[in-house]
């Protein structure tokens, strides 16, 4: 238990350090995502997804990771749609998401500290009213989904497709950023 | 630097496409087609019969399936009784381990994978090749409306075997 907590702490520190180094502790940078002027969030997150996906695939392929032990979250359609909307509104208004707000707060930004405080207020309010929310919270269970199951394609082929989509996405993001920079300099 | 990383990702992704699916060591235990057939027959559709889940496409499920198998392509709804035996089968390309892991995580303790999938069901139960003394196989095959064949012979070669008379099809 202590080892798991220590590992989670170390991973959390590494995650926060990476976000900070990528510049994602700045609300200004994050908001650029919504205006298509700065797609750092997209590039960082998709890089992380592609890296983790390749790591999981090859570790499992080499027998170093047991995929049977990897937890796949279930889909609860309506509750997750509502949760996503609330999250999106909060992200757009504050310019920070939960991880980046912690990074901003840790690096001394006041807006980050306020978002963290708001986040904890939200957690507290949800916990206090959970009895009334529980039926909705547990509604619409759809089971688990994975891309190979949905697309009826072998796991490795899906991995290759996601890598290609990521690289094309990075190229498009760079183009959009250059166009936005040229437009701003006019 | 960016080009190098992109090239590494492309190489690893390309190799993934041709390297085959990972084989997790924690693969759920298997159940043979004959054992599954016996369990379905002996359970008579009651709470002791296995809960069979077909993870293939709806079309494949519609064409042919293990009797009593429910289609579970997307949403996975297991039985309310978490002690009930669950048996999954899918195509070779479907990562059945993910579904099995989710079901185990949801509290189902007896999750099995049909060894050989639908092909094994067809080969071992519906069209088995039998020898003298394979009465259990012949009986199970006939119970599900199968056609046992003598090894290297025709279906009629086992028609005189001293087994129980054929029973109605089980809905395969």
Describe what you observe in this structure.
The complex is a heterodimer of chains A (186) and B (172). By secondary structure, chain A is mainly α. Chain A has nine helices and two strands; from the N terminus they run αααβααααβαα. A two-stranded antiparallel ribbon of chain A has the order 1-2. The mean pLDDT of chain A is 88. Chain B is α/β, with parallel strands linked by helices. In chain B, 37% of the residues lie in helices and 12% in strands. In chain B, the strands form two sheets. Chain B has a five-stranded parallel β-sheet with strand order 1-5-4-2-3. In chain B, helix 2 packs across helix 6. Chain B is globular, with a radius of gyration of 20 Å. The N and C termini of chain B lie far apart (58 Å). At the A-B interface, helix 3, strand 2, helix 8 and helix 9 of A face helix 1 and helix 4 of B.
* Residues in helices of chain A, as a percent range: over 70%
- Rounded to the nearest angstrom, the radius of gyration of chain A is 19 Å
**How helical, in percent, are the residues of chain B?**
25-40%
Largest protein interface, residues of each chain: A-B, 40 and 40 residues
Largest sheet composition of chain B: 5 strands, parallel
Overall pLDDT of chain B: 79
Q: What is the strand tally of chain A?
A: 2
């Amino acid at each position: 238990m202590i080892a798991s907590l220590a590992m989670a702490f170390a991973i959390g520190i590494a995650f926060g350090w990476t976000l900070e180094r990528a510049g994602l502790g700045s609300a200004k940078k994050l908001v650029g995502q919504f205006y298509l002027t700065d797609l750092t969030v997209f590039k960082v997150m998709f890089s992380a997804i592609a890296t983790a996906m390749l790591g999981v695939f090859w570790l499992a392929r080499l027998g170093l990771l047991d995929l049977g032990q990897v937890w796949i979250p279930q889909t609860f359609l309506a509750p997750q749609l509502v949760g996503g909307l609330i999250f999106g509104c909060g992200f757009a208004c504050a310019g920070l998401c939960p991880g980046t707000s912690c990074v901003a707060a840790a690096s001394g930004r006041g807006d980050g500290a306020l978002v963290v405080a708001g986040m904890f207020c939200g957690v507290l309010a949800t916990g206090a009213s959970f009895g009334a929310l529980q039926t909705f919270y547990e509604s619409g269970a759809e089971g688990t989904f994975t891309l190979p199951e949905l697309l009826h394609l072998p796991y490795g082929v899906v991995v290759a497709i996601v890598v290609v989509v990521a690289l094309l996405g990075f190229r498009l993001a760079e183009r959009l950023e250059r166009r936005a920079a040229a437009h701003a300099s006019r | 630097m960016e080009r190098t990383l992109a090239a590494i990702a492309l190489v690893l992704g390309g190799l993934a496409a041709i390297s085959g699916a990972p084989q997790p060591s924690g693969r759920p235990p298997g159940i043979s087609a004959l054992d599954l057939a016996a369990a379905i027959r002996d359970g008579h559709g009651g709470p002791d019969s296995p809960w069979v889940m077909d993870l293939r496409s709806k079309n494949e499920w519609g064409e042919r399936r293990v009797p009593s198998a429910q289609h579970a392509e997307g949403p996975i709804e297991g039985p309310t009784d978490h002690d009930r035996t669950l048996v999954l089968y899918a195509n070779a390309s479907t990562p059945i381990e993910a579904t099995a892991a989710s079901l185990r995580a949801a509290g189902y303790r007896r999750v099995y994978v049909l060894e050989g999938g639908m092909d094994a069901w067809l080969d071992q139960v519906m069209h088995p090749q039998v020898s003298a003394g394979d009465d259990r196989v012949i009986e199970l095959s006939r119970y599900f409306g199968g056609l046992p064949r003598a090894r290297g012979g025709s279906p009629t070669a086992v028609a005189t075997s001293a087994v129980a008379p054929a029973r109605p099809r089980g809905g395969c």
